[in-house]
């Protein structure tokens, strides 16, 4: 097959399978961090359900303070105080005020709160030297969320602040999408489990655990199949089991012979088979993309850096499509200036690891130079930049877009 344009390859791959018919489940809101909502969540009550002060000070009727100034203060009669968590002891009428703490409920009749330092408490009354505006230092009932308002929408991935909003609304359970099941296979006779001591010519499996973590961070449910040696029958058996999941990620099989039988195996297990073999990117040129009877398969290179870059380019968009989400690759792009020249070869998109630094009030991107087998370059990096295929590098000092790594 020809070396494919990465954007065209991604479009062809994503168009060859449909979003998964995922199941739903109810779960406690407090345990739903990172989960995808299956239904809209609606507020059953106003938040807050009463007017409250945002400052320690005095609840007033704003009109009673109009005209107050340094040389001509206004005096209001102090008629009580509000205790935190309690109902106000009564309303305030014309010419009256009441002490109210931060977060305290405003008494009926009040429509503003004056900060403690902007008033002077006297014997039985309070002096005000400036006027208050209606709504000043006050959160009105339903100002945050009104009853019946949609709090969170279907398809939204729950963050910590969303969990807090659900708690404030008294929503104790949510209906979430069951995560797509992702099978992860590592291949290669030279690969041994992380707990093993590598012998001559052997390496521990870094890709499997890294992909498990990446899939979980992106909202999928990873199933690690372990390591399959360079033997066609064993790989075929593992793939048949893996294809019972929603998405399959295969890393390794770097030798020419192994790659040949991996692709041959994918081509015989179902239709349409291998769509792309070879993508014009660095690192990750020998990537394979296949769809087997509706199940997407990403063949990732064995080098750890290449595998994780290709996962971001093709695995993550596939997972998002399965969940019915836009297949966006990058979120929260950061603009930064390069600290050093970045050479590249024209004709391929070159993804370079960078660390983000702050110097003299500006953000800088420092290239983390290293071969695609050096995983430590990723741990030192904060994200990736892309050198487009029509350039032969980017000069130091140039502003670039950095696609940050997700913070799991």
Folded structure, characterized:
The protein has 408 residues and is α/β, with parallel strands linked by helices. The chain has 4 domains: 6-20 and 179-322, MoaB/Mog-like domain (Molybdenum Cofactor Biosythetic Enzyme, Chain A); 24-47 and 143-177, Molybdopterin biosynthesis moea protein, domain 2 (Alpha-Beta Complex); 52-139, Molybdopterin biosynthesis moea protein, domain 3 (Molybdopterin biosynthesis moeA protein, domain 3), CATH 2.170.190.11; 334-404, MoeA, C-terminal, domain IV (Beta-clip), CATH 2.40.340.10. Helices cover 20% and strands 31% of the residues. It has 8 helices and 28 strands. The strands form 8 sheets. A 6-stranded mixed β-sheet has the order 7-4-6-5-9-8. A hairpin with a 2-residue loop joins strand 20 and strand 21 (295-300). Helix 4 runs parallel beside helix 7. The chain is elongated. 39% of the residues are buried.
């Amino acid at each position: 097959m020809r070396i494919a344009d990465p954007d065209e390859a991604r479009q062809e791959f994503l168009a060859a399978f449909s979003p998964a018919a995922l199941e739903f489940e109810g779960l406690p809101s407090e345990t739903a961090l990172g989960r995808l909502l299956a239904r809209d969540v609606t507020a059953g009550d106003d938040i807050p359900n009463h007017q409250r002060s945002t400052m320690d000070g005095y609840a007033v009727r704003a009109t009673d303070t109009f005209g107050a100034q340094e040389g001509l203060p206004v005096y209001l009669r102090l008629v009580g105080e509000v205790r935190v968590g309690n109902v106000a002891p009564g309303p305030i009428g014309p010419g009256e005020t009441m002490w109210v703490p931060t977060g305290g409920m405003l008494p009926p009749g009040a429509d503003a709160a004056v900060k403690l330092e902007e008033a002077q408490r006297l014997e039985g009354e309070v002096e005000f030297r400036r006027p208050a505006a209606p709504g000043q230092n006050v959160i009105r009932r339903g100002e945050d969320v009104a009853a019946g308002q949609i709090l969170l929408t279907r398809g939204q991935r729950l963050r910590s602040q969303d969990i807090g909003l659900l708690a404030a609304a008294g929503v104790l359970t949510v209906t979430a999408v069951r995560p797509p099941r992702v099978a992860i296979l590592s291949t290669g006779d030279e690969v041994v489990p992380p707990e093993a001591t590598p012998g001559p010519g052997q390496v521990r499996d870094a890709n499997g655990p890294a992909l498990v973590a990446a899939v979980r961070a992106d909202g999928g449910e990873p199933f690690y199949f372990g390591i399959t040696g360079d033997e066609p029958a064993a790989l075929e058996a593992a793939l048949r089991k893996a294809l019972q999941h929603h998405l399959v990620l295969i890393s390794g099989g770097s030798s020419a012979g192994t790659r040949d039988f991996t692709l041959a195996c994918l081509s015989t297990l179902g239709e349409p088979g291998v769509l792309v073999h070879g993508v014009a990117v660095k690192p990750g040129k020998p990537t394979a993309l296949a769809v087997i009877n509706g199940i997407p398969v990403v063949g990732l290179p064995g080098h750890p850096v290449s595998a994780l870059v290709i996962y971001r380019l093709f695995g993550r968009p596939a997972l998002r499509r399965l969940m019915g989400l836009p297949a966006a690759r990058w979120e929260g792009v950061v603009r930064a200036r390069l600290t050093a020249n970045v050479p590249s070869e024209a004709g391929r998109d070159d993804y370079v690891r960078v660390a983000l630094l702050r110097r003299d009030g500006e953000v800088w991107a420092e290239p983390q130079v290293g071969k695609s087998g050096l995983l430590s370059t990723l741990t030192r990096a904060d994200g990736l930049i892309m050198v487009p295929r029509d350039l032969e590098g980017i000069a130091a000092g140039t502003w670039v877009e950095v696609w940050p790594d997700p913070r799991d």
